[in-house]
Amino acid sequence: MGRLGIRRTRLFITVVLMALFTLLITATTNAQTTADIIAKKVSKLQAKATKTKGIIELDSLAFDDVLAKPRNYSMVVLFTAISPEFQCVPCKNFDPEYRLVAAGWSRIPDKSQIFFGILDFKAGQSVFQKFNMNSAPSLLYFPASDSPESSPSFDRYDFGKSGFQAESFANWVNARSGLKIDVQRPFDFLAFSLKIMGFAGTVGLAHFLYTRGGKVIRSKYLWAAVSLFSIFIFISGHMWNQIRHPPYSMPSRDGRPGFIAPGFQNQFGLETQIVAITYAVLCGGAISLMSSIPRIESPSKQRLAVIIWMGVITVMYSVLILFFRAKNPSYPFRLLF
Fold it and tell me: Signal peptide: which range, if any (predicted)?
């Protein structure tokens, strides 16, 4: 019995060791297989991105494939609706900016860390529904993940806060990926020519004013006009536009052109121009009532001019309040509208 027990013990130990060895071989093989799959996927993505200047066109199947876990790379995906039937103006405006940042992918040292994809609504309606997207464009950043079971985590780019410019988008991606993707815009010969012409014109005007325009320089009307123009520019939000680079306008959900962005944290370029013109008309009316109308000798004409300008001021101030109520719907007051 003693020898039989020893044999059984040796047999049991042998079986356990063989089982452990088999599990080790299987795990190693699976790990190698997973690593090979990821390596092949990365190589395939790099080949596609290289041919299309950093952009990978996606559909529903390709989207699920590139985001399948585990993956050792991050993915930036632009959800857009660029087809003409959707009339998505923001999509068309942001598309070249997105491609400009994606083109910087070719200049980073390790191109396997991040990829840029585009998913159009026509090619990936199911994905839009999966992420509950009711508007476009929308931009998501999917970080690398080693876990095959967790649901896909992502970070959403805020167009209202960061704007539609490539530089802002590139900074957003760099902050999340830890990479340095730079934006290199093509040289704008037209803008350069306009700057040269503007500089030459400024020098010529300065020379004319210095030699012959002493009276013009000392004119109080000139400096009053320059001061008023500067005031209108700055109180209308022009500097905010220069810093944030908002879109000029954006259509509403029903397709009508939109020129007033709701809320105090957003505005459109067209909105700035409308506000500046409104203030200019109000200022012109006040100046006319104070300086021009008192010089009219005919009492009837003077009275008519006063009525006209008071009507203009009332209407324009009502429009100004209307704009403010569009920005802040809870504002309770109104004048005519």
Answer: 1-31
- Predicted pLDDT at 29: 43
Is residue 183, in this structure, part of any structural domain at all? no
| Whole-number pLDDT of residue 150 | 52
User: Where among 177, 201, 232 does a domain terminate?
Assistant: 177
Rounded CA-CA distance 288/195 in Å is: 37
Radius of gyration of the chain (CA): 33
Of 177, 206, 235, which residue constitutes the final position of a domain?
177
Task: Note whether 82 and 16 are same-domain residues.
Answer: yes
What is the reported pLDDT for 20? 60
Residues 207 and 226 in one domain: no
311-320: long-range pairs with CB below 8 Å, 24+: 312/281, 312/285, 313/282, 313/285, 313/286, 316/278, 316/281, 316/282, 316/285, 317/282, 319/278, 320/275, 320/278, 320/279, 320/282
